[in-house]
Design goal:
The chain is mainly α and 167 residues long. The mean pLDDT is 83. The chain has two domains: 54 residues, no CATH class; 103 residues. It is built from eight helices and no strands. Helix 5 crosses helix 6.
């Protein structure tokens, strides 16, 4: 499966090749061929500088979150999520039955445990550690709106329950 950038560069190469073939068919004009190649080089340069075209091909894996995060010792787990396991489990129990996670469309959501872990990791991170791509890679989730949606959802739930637990 080709990404958009590959498809675009292929189309530009094909178009340039056809233009050169047309030029060669009419007469041998080196200046015209050079002009086509210069335009191709400029277009390819612009496309290659645009890094946004690679979002859809970032590999994602749930191995780390399922096989490593769950087996970390207490200290390392606390370092990753900024909370000990017992309190993490208490928070999960407090919010797991909230309507936000049990709507008709909720079957498409990640588990409450994962959403809370992503949010806690994000809140406990700064600098490069807080980068969406890094969080997405660690937890095996999308790096576009996914992390923002997860964080907003968790905050919405906690704010809804705020009056029960704060005075």
């Amino acid at each position: 499966k080709k990404c958009f950038r590959e498809k675009l560069t292929d189309a530009l190469f094909n178009e340039a090749a056809e233009e050169i073939m047309d030029i060669e068919g009419i007469e041998s004009d080196d200046d015209a061929v050079d002009a086509v190649l210069d335009e191709l080089a400029d277009n390819i340069s612009v496309i290659m500088e645009c890094w946004r075209g690679d979002y859809s091909i970032i590999p994602k894996s749930d191995i780390w979150r399922n096989n490593i995060l769950t087996t970390l010792d207490e200290g390392r787990s606390r370092q990753m999520l900024r909370i000990d396991r017992d309190r993490y489990n208490i928070l999960v129990d407090l919010i797991k039955n909230d309507e936000e996670f049990n709507k008709a469309h909720s079957c498409k959501q990640f588990s409450v445990e994962l959403q809370l872990a992503v949010t806690l990791f994000r809140l406990g991170s700064s600098g490069e550690s807080a980068a969406f791509r890094k969080i997405a890679t660690i937890f095996g989730v999308g790096d576009g709106k996914t992390i923002s949606l997860i964080t907003k959802r968790i905050f919405k739930v906690f704010l809804r329950h705020q009056s029960k637990y704060t005075y």
